[in-house]
């Protein structure tokens, strides 16, 4: 069941990527005149006399990207147009919406494949990896026997056995001594200061 689900997930992800690539390849080639979404001229005009600053956008070709073609309606009378246009800064901007769409489709397909894989791991994997009812009690019995043998084993008085429990106990005793020493020094300093 898990291999079938994994194969289905891989097929879905590969089919989504194939569709995205085909839409890129089969999309109409870039024309000489780009679509109105892909090009624009942006003019930023600062405040001039009693007129506040404004940003103008218009879909025009690169050769027409200037204040006279973009700023409509002209906020100043005819004799101030040249002075107003000298203050404006116009930039031609171009983008490819097709490339943006393809990148978004690829991104969403990868995220979708990862979400499907996460759903597989959360829902199906625990069902596949059920703990075996026979091996679990045997494992618990082995742990209990190990614990009993460690507790029953006598420790030699001259040489100390190097078990995990004894190391932990030794570290705990050292820690307790350090805490006692710290308490003494803190209380002694407190008495000296007061």
What features would you describe in this structure?
The protein is mainly alpha-helical and 194 residues long. Among the domains are: 38-95; 98-128. It has 6 helices and 3 strands, in the order αββααβααα. A 3-stranded antiparallel sheet has the order 2-1-3, covered by helices on one side. The longest helix is centred in the middle third of the chain and has 32 residues, at 97-128. Residues 28-33 have low confidence and may be disordered.
TL;DR?
The protein has 194 residues and is mostly helical. Helix content is 60%, strand content 9%.
What are the main properties of this structure?
194 residues, mainly alpha, 3-stranded antiparallel β-sheet, 6 helices, 3 strands, signal, TMEM9 protein, membrane, transmembrane helix
- Strand-residue proportion: 5-15%
Largest sheet: 3 strands, antiparallel
Counting helices, strands and paired strands, the structural category is mainly alpha
Helical proportion? 55-70%
Q: Provide the residue-averaged pLDDT.
A: 76
H and E order: HEEHHEHHH
- Extended strand count: 3
Distance between the termini: 75 Å
